[in-house]
């Protein structure tokens, strides 16, 4: 797949985009493929989007994407999260806010939201496994999230009932499977 890549963050081969207020521009069907460890330590606002236009670009995660920085990262590309074995296809949101404007697609991937971090989904989404132990949790808006295998949230194992919407902000979206 062809395409363009421009950023004010460190160049390809450097695994961390720490403390950059930056934009990553893609276009013409470019694919960002992470099959290792992507450490998002951004403490400010960062965007990854199809700024050059043309065919839609994608972010393909078959490794581990970890949102660690206190800032907001907005990925406006198709975000595909696929597991092909143990330790792969994992999205960890441990700090700050990860906004996936086009949602997340991954019938085999895992999404973990911890601490006071939040995940904002801007489109219908899917994942195999979801752990939401954050008080800030998930913002679905009007979008549905399909969980194909396991869903564990902050109130799991507390009391006599399971509340799928614990720590979930939504207007009409639902979590289902």
Main sheet makeup: 8 strands, mixed
**Neighbour order of strands in the largest sheet:** 1-2-5-8-11-14-16-18
Unreliable segments of 5+ consecutive residues? 1-8
Number of domains: 1
Order of helices and strands: EEEEEEEEEEEEEEEEEEE
Give the structure's gist in a few sentences.
The protein is mainly β and 177 residues long.
Describe this structure in words.
- The protein has 177 residues and is mainly beta.
- It has one domain (4-156).
- Helices cover 0% and strands 47% of the residues.
- The chain is built from no helices and 19 strands.
- It has strands at 4-7, 23-27, 31-34, 37-40, 45-49, 58-61, 64-67, 72-75, 78-81, 90-93, 97-100, 104-105, 110-113, 118-121, 125-132, 137-141, 145-153, 168-170, 175-176.
- The strands form three sheets. It has an eight-stranded mixed beta sheet, with no helix packed on it. A seven-stranded parallel beta sheet has the order 4-7-10-13-15-17-19, with no helix packed on it.
- The N and C termini lie far apart (33 Å).
- 32% of the residues are buried.
Keywords:
single chain; 177 residues; mainly beta; 8-stranded mixed beta sheet; 19 strands; globular; disordered N terminus
Helix and strand layout, with pairings?
Blueprint: E1 4-7, E2 23-27, E3 31-34, E4 37-40, E5 45-49, E6 58-61, E7 64-67, E8 72-75, E9 78-81, E10 90-93, E11 97-100, E12 104-105, E13 110-113, E14 118-121, E15 125-132, E16 137-141, E17 145-153, E18 168-170, E19 175-176
Parallel strand pairs: 2-5, 3-6, 4-7, 5-8, 6-9, 7-10, 8-11, 9-12, 10-13, 11-14, 13-15, 14-16, 15-17, 16-18, 17-19
Antiparallel strand pairs: 1-2
């Amino acid at each position: 797949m062809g395409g363009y890549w421009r950023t004010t963050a460190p160049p390809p081969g450097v695994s961390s985009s720490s403390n950059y207020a930056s934009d990553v521009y893609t276009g013409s069907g470019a694919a960002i493929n992470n099959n290792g460890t992507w450490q998002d330590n951004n403490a400010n606002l960062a965007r990854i989007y199809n700024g050059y236009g043309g065919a839609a670009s994608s972010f393909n995660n078959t490794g581990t994407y970890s949102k660690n920085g206190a800032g907001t990262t907005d990925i406006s590309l198709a975000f595909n999260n696929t597991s092909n074995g143990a330790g792969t296809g994992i999205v960890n949101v441990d700090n700050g806010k990860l906004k996936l404007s086009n949602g997340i697609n991954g019938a085999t991937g895992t999404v973990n939201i911890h601490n006071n971090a939040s995940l904002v989904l801007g489109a219908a989404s899917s994942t195999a496994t979801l752990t939401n132990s954050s008080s800030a949790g998930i913002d679905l808006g009007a979008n549905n999230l399909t969980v194909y295998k396991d869903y564990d949230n902050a109130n799991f194992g507390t009391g006599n009932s399971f509340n799928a919407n614990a720590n979930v902000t939504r207007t009409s979206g639902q979590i289902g499977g």
